[in-house]
TrEMBL record:
Source species of the chain: Salinicoccus kekensis
Biased composition (Acidic residues): 27-39
Cited Pfam families: SBP_bac_5
Keyword vocabulary terms for this entry: Signal, Transport
Name of the featured protein: Peptide/nickel transport system substrate-binding protein
Length: 562
């Protein structure tokens, strides 16, 4: 059910998952254990983490949300990893080389065991990417690997990836949590379960052959099994990382336990329990009293409370997110660039950050955040200039203003910001009906492209401008990858294609700088602010917790005070 308010635009502070975007998403990382911390802390502890939202699924190809990524990052390894500085490191691949523009060879780690006891080989990598790109699965992140034409098994522990065209950020994409490697055994079981439920006469091997060939028969089988794919993997997420699924109680908690045959460094915990606690005050109280050791989401208003408490503190991190106001680029009056610029200049971003977010944000200048490779730091910050906004509106096809609707998810901070902005936007004659929806419903509606305006957040989870710009603004991304505003600019398309295919970093940076100039001029969406992340930690219960720029709680170096 929706609720309507006659307000003026709002700010939408969200933490996604897709994403992608939204987006929104998540990155793996291999970090060496901190020996000193391990010696100072005790081993064999039980760690409890409070989550504001429940994970959607353990299946890496089933969703692209941050709550699910929190757990999947602990369960699955990726071929390569990213550290807290988003630098590429080893994962299940110990070495790799780019053989030519379209070919990458990966040497795989040996003596690695899946949670189910099977040995990790190159066939598991091949099966994982075949499934990720299978149209029957319909993975929301398939766009990240659509350039992969073939994953060739060239040895028991060697694979070669062949791409359709040169793709510079391939390694960054391979570090994404949704590229976590599953065992071929559980993948086969999942497909067989779907075929059985569909009462299909097609065998598993026949299905794989049909998938390779394509055609009408494959499409028929694909449609029959699509609804049941993922059931087995969601219940039995079979990875190689340091934690494995113990139990899941929907709406309450998920318990992960230490994987005794983990191939990496020793871990100090026995179990990690993720408790779903939606209410902010409840999570804060649990953090202070020891019911949880980590709070994944501390709102800006309560940051001082957590810092000042004798047992708790905040772990800060510069984020990779950009919160934005979206326009329907093809729909009147938002097809008029003067209207878009008028609204953008009428938004007082400084006051929103300082007064509504208690300073937890960075004023936006472009459409990707400063820590992201390719961010153009020569661009000026988006300026609040009411006089300039009024001039743009006077030059538009709607000088007397207009009525429109803006969509948002229901939250107290959104309402506060909307009220704060009401007077300013009324100065340029824009009167908006604000419609609030449950978050999942809102995302479904935004995907349809029928909006006037909405507000959301995009997290560039790979740390590369390709993920921040291509799915958001390339014409081809109007297929549901992220371009919800129906924006198309051939010049921008060429730059984004050049940026992802160039091997020279300088050429890539130049292409993305030009792309950001175009986006600042066209304003299909208006950037508002870049996110600053923070989680709460009870220092009497746990040490060594880290937070990466995506927002994933890292547990590699966790220990427990004596």
């Amino acid at each position: 059910m929706k609720r309507k308010f006659w307000l003026i635009p709002l700010m939408f502070a969200l933490m996604l998952v897709m994403a992608a975007c939204s987006d929104d998403s998540s990155v793996d990382e291999e970090v060496e254990a901190d020996d000193d911390a391990a010696e100072e802390g005790s081993q064999g502890g039980d760690l409890t983490i409070g989550l504001i939202n429940e994970p959607v699924t353990m299946d890496p190809h089933g969703s692209n949300d941050i709550p699910s990524a929190q757990l999947r990052t602990q369960i699955f390894d990726t071929l390569v990893s990213q550290d807290l500085d988003m630098e590429i490191g080893e994962g299940l691949a110990t070495d790799w080389e780019q053989v030519d523009d379209n070919t990458w060879r990966f040497e795989l780690k040996e003596d690695v065991t899946f949670h189910n006891g099977s040995d990790f080989t190159a066939e598991d990598v091949e099966a994982t990417f075949d499934r990720l790109l299978d149209p029957s699965v319909g993975a929301s992140v398939a766009f990240m690997f659509e350039m992969v034409e073939d994953v060739e098994v060239t040895g028991d522990h060697e694979v070669t990836l062949h791409t359709e065209y040169p793709f510079a950020p391939l390694l960054s994409n391979l570090a994404h949590n949704t590229a976590g490697i599953l065992s071929k055994e559980v993948i086969d079981e999942d497909y067989q379960n779907a075929l059985d439920n569909a009462e299909s006469e097609v065998t598993l091997e026949e299905y794989y052959e049909l998938r390779e060939e394509g055609g009408d028969e494959f499409e028929e089988v694909s449609e029959a099994i699509a609804a049941d794919l993922g059931q087995v993997i969601a219940e039995n997420p079979d990875g190689t990382n340091h934690l494995q699924l113990s139990e899941r109680n929907p709406g309450d908690n998920v318990v992960l336990e230490r994987f005794e045959d983990f191939h990496g460094d020793e871990r100090n915990f026995d179990t990690v329990t993720y408790r779903v606690i939606p209410e902010n005050q409840s999570r804060l109280a649990e953090l202070e009293t020891g019911g949880i050791a980590v709070n994944d989401s501390v709102d800006a208003e309560n940051m001082p409370r957590v810092r000042d408490h004798e047992d708790t503190d905040i772990i800060d991190q510069d984020g990779l997110s950009m919160t934005y106001l979206a326009f329907n680029y093809e729909k009147e009056p938002f097809d008029d660039e003067n209207v878009r610029k008028a609204i953008s200049h009428a938004i007082d971003r400084d006051s929103i950050i300082n007064d509504m977010l208690d300073g937890r944000g960075i004023l936006a200048s472009t459409h990707i955040a400063p820590p992201v490779f390719g961010h153009d730091d020569s661009q000026d910050e988006m300026e609040y200039d009411l006089e300039q906004a009024q001039e743009y509106m006077a030059q538009s096809d709607h000088p007397d203003g207009f009525d429109a609707t803006i969509w948002m998810s229901d939250s107290e901070v959104n309402r506060d910001i909307a009220l704060f902005m009401q007077d300013t936007l009324s100065e340029i004659g824009v009167n908006l009906e604000i419609e609030q929806y449950e978050f999942g419903t809102f995302l479904e509606m935004a995907d349809q492209g029928d909006h006037d305006m909405f507000m959301l957040q995009w997290i560039t989870v790979t740390g590369d401008a390709d993920y921040g710009l291509y799915p958001m603004f390339h014409t081809d991304s109007q297929d549901g990858s992220g371009n919800r505003w129906n924006y198309s600019n051939p010049e921008l398309d060429e730059l984004l294609e050049a940026g992802r295919q160039a091997s020279d970093e300088g050429e890539r940076e130049d292409a993305y700088a030009e792309a950001q100039e175009i986006l600042v001029e066209d304003l299909p969406i208006a950037p508002l602010y870049y996110g600053e992340l923070g989680i709460g930690v009870n220092d009497t219960l746990v040490e060594g917790v880290e937070l990466d720029p995506v927002g994933i709680i890292r547990l590699e170096n966790v220990s427990f005070p004596e």
